[in-house]
Amino acid sequence: MNEPLKVLIVEDSEDDAKLALRALRHGGFDPTYRRVQTAAELKTALAQEHWDAVISDFNMPGFTGLDALRIFRSTGLDIPFILISGTIGEETAVDAMKAGASDYVMKKSLARLAPALERELNETQVRAAHRLAQRKLVASEQRLRTIIETEPECVKVMSKEGVLLEMNAAGLAMLEADSLAAAQSQPPLEFIVPEYRAAFAALHKRVMRGEKGILEYEVIGLKGGRRWLETHAAPMSGANGEGTMLLGVTRDITERKNSQDRIVYLNRVYAMLSGINALLIHARDRDELYREACRIAVDAGGFRMAWVAMVDRKVMKVAPVASAGVDEELLSALNQRFLLAQD
After folding, report:
1. What's the confidence (pLDDT) of residue 190?
2. So what's the pLDDT on residue 137?
3. 52: left (phi > 0), else alpha (psi -120 to 50), else beta?
4. Helical pair 65-75 and 39-48, crossing angle rounded to 10 deg
5. What is each CA distance from 258 to 47, 176, 225, 264, 272, in whole angstroms?
6. Which residues are paired to 40 by β-bridges?
7. C-alpha span between 200 and 189 (Å, rounded)
8. How many CB atoms lie within 10 A of CB 132?
9. What sections of the chain are H helices per DSSP?
10. Contact 306/324 with Cβ under 8 angstroms?
11. Is the pLDDT of residue 342 over 50?
12. Would you say the pTM of this structure is higher than 0.85?
């Protein structure tokens, strides 16, 4: 079954038009056509109907194939435009191809017309598919960017050198930055509290090796605010698939960390108070009570140091009697008697 073809023929000779149509039928097409002879007719036909191809004679009285080509090109249509001539020279043919003609066929070789048109139709379909794919890609990228920008969690991209490349609005808010440029005003590691910088740098290296990772760390924003963040990081390809970048999705876990810290603190206080309550019952003497109370405050309560002092109200002085976690230098200072203020 022949392939349907809607073709616009620019030709002053009805007989020559029929020869071209016969060549198309022999080549496997089933053409429906319209023949025009003037510039005005060509403009009207191109504006009124959709065409699969345009075939134009090169030499017509007062209207040449190059004139027809210029009118066709002005429409922006992407369909084959093939010139047919009986006398076209090589230099003229090259000029026509440079001007945008798809191909040219000599009237004595009309058997080439159908294969040439089939090739150009295939290339037109390829270009149309590419344009459609590009439009879909642009639309997809726009949708993705909209999603990222409205995402309540931080989405960021870092280069393999550790440079911040992209960050959405949620991420900028976490760093107290008004713009991406503000967030880029200092290296990403500078936002991280020093004790977590090595861990973040190690995470970055793992991701650059193709691994994934999660890290909790604390940051200080541009305005001095502190918050806890949790980043899920994974590798991603750069432009044209070259190189590797870090894609990070980060959430603010400050409230959760504060709640956890509060629970840990309360558990330690409870353990400390329970230990001291038991000590009050079982301690053999006052010295053991004070000494063990200090130890429990450090071991169970999580305090760095503890110190118990006795007040001698006769001389209004205080003297340390027990301690835990106090270094020798500080202990020596505490063991000196300090004058208390008068009541």
Report:
1. 94
2. 74
3. alpha
4. 30
5. 69, 20, 15, 10, 21
6. none
7. 8
8. 10
9. 14-26, 39-48, 65-75, 90-99, 113-150, 169-174, 180-183, 188-191, 194-208, 254-282, 286-299, 328-334
10. yes
11. no
12. no
Tens digit of each residue's pLDDT (9 = 90 or more) over 39-49: 999 999 999 99
Q: What is the pLDDT of residues 223-270, one digit of tens each?
A: 999 999 999 999 987 555 445 888 899 999 988 887 777 777 767 777
By the 10 Å C-beta count (0-12 exposed, 13-18 middle, 19+ buried), 156 is classed as buried
- Write the single-letter amino acid at 58: F
Secondary structure element (H or E) that encloses residue 307, with its range: strand 306-312
Q: What is the pLDDT of residue 60?
A: 84
The burial class, CB within 10 Å (0-12 / 13-18 / 19+), for 129 is: exposed
Q: What's the CA gap between 103 and 69, in Å, rounded?
A: 12
- Does residue 250 contact residue 230 with C-beta atoms inside 8 Å? yes
As a whole number of angstroms, the distance between CA 27 and CA 7 comes to: 14
Computed over its alpha carbons, how large is the radius of gyration of the chain? Answer: 42
Distances (CA, A) of 186 to 161, 183, 218, 342: 14, 7, 16, 54
Amino acid code (one letter) for 325: G
> Exposure of 191 by Cβ count < 10 A (0-12 exposed, 13-18 middle, 19+ buried)?
buried
Q: Where does residue 277 fall: left (phi above 0), alpha (psi -120 to 50 degrees), or beta otherwise?
A: alpha
All residues at 6 or more sequence positions from 166 whose CB lies less than 8 Å from its CB, including other chains: 155, 156, 157, 180
Half-sphere exposure of 209 (CA within 13 A, CB side): 8
